[in-house]
Amino acid sequence: MTVNKYLVFILVFIFIPSTKSLGELESFCDNLPRPAYSQFKKHEASNDWFEVYQFEHNVWAIYEPFQWQEVISYLIIGNSSALLVDSGNGIGDIKAVVDRLTDKPVRIINTHSHFDHIGGNYQFETILSPSTEFSISNSKGNNSQTIKTEVSTEALCKSLPKGVTQKSHAIKPYSITAKVKDGDMIDLGGRKIEILYIPGHTDDSIALFEAESGYLWTGDSFYEGPIWLWFPETDVHAYQQSISRLAALTPQLKALFPAHNIPYSNPSLLAETDEAFQLVLAGKAKSRPYATFEGTVIYDFDRFGFLMLKENKQ
Ligand SMILES: [Zn+2]
Fold first, then answer.
1. Which of the ends of the chain has fewer CB neighbours closer than 10 A, N or C?
2. What's residue 121's pLDDT?
3. Is cis: bond before 33, omega within 30 of 0?
4. Positive or negative, the Cα torsion across 261, 302, 13, 16?
5. Any idea what the Cα angle at residue 153 is, between residues 148 and 155, rounded to 5°?
6. Do 134 and 234 form a contact (C-beta atoms < 8 A)?
7. 151 C-alpha to center of ligand 1: Å?
8. Answer CATH for 3-312 from 3.60.15.10, 1.10.10.10, 3.40.50.150, 3.40.1650.10
């Protein structure tokens, strides 16, 4: 999950008197399309819900711009099989998009099991994931009010795909069919993707690294925007070690593929994130209270930020 969307939700449902219309609030829709997208060409596999962008080495970004998470899933296609890195919100039919892009067998791997990354898992047979209590619990599905809010008017910039309603929308259960761990290699035929276990944002967070292309899929451990590190399932000290580990890879990297907002980032941002987070944990960075969530503070940096519990502040 990312911050600006949740902010709008809280403002709408908690702080804004019911007499105030939604139009009076700044909408995340007003900031779309993000300027970075002008450098990418939208592929014809795009539809009313997903925008599809192709990158070198048969990598595809499958972006959900009209829902406030602005989540991005990726398809990596090898000679013999393909890997879907996350499956989005489960609002649109991501399998139909994937089927347009490849006829090879597709496995899913989740960068972590927050609901906006696992929503389409149920459409696929093979799901690779770390197997912590958190991931197992999330694999059982979610039909809570939080999930309903993800398809509320405030969460959307356009109407829902046909057949999807607030009542019907839920994260459907799925089975983790293979457990992965740090150092595992996924062979797609002619290309190999390495699993890096990077706990912190959650205890089941991973990154994917392809040495040959220099590509790194970072999940929610890095994206351009405020990085959420205040969940009960977040461990900021583990995150610091994980982001340092990713930053150390920078000389081998050509591009980052994060899970929200913008699908292609400069690897130099990892070292900046690492440095910034060390300052945060050392009590040397400036924070501001974040009134939206009681007990949280936000640290703003140029292209990213950290939303954290006040108690993590030194
Ligand atoms: Zn997340």
1. C
2. 98
3. yes
4. negative
5. 70
6. no
7. 18
8. 3.60.15.10
* CA atoms of 143 and 164, how far apart (whole Å): 14
* Interval 135-187: pLDDT, tens: 999 999 999 999 999 999 999 999 999 999 999 999 999 999 999 999 999 99
Residue type, 25: L
Q: Determine the distance separating the centroid of ligand 1 and the alpha carbon of 1, expressed in angstroms.
A: 5
Q: Measure 68 CA to ligand 1 centroid, in angstroms.
A: 13
The total of other beta-carbon atoms located within 10 Å of residue 211's CB is 14
Which two tokens mark 129? 């994931």
**DSSP code, position 159:** P
Report the DSSP beta bridge partners of residue 186: 193
Residue 21 has pLDDT above 70, yes or no: no
How remote is the CA of residue 87 from the centroid of ligand 1, in Å?
13
Tell me how far the alpha carbon of residue 220 lies from the centroid of ligand 1, in angstroms. 5
CA–centroid distance, residue 259 to ligand 1 (Å)? 9
Measured in angstroms, how far is the CA atom of residue 116 from the centroid of ligand 1? 7
Structure-token pair, residue 38: 């002008």
Taking only Cα atoms into account, the Rg of the chain, rounded to an integer number of angstroms, comes to: 19
Report the predicted TM-score, pTM, of the whole model to 2 decimal places: 0.91
Whether the Cβ atoms of residue 25 and residue 8 lie closer than 8 Å to each other: yes
Give residue 72 CA to ligand 1 midpoint distance, Å: 12
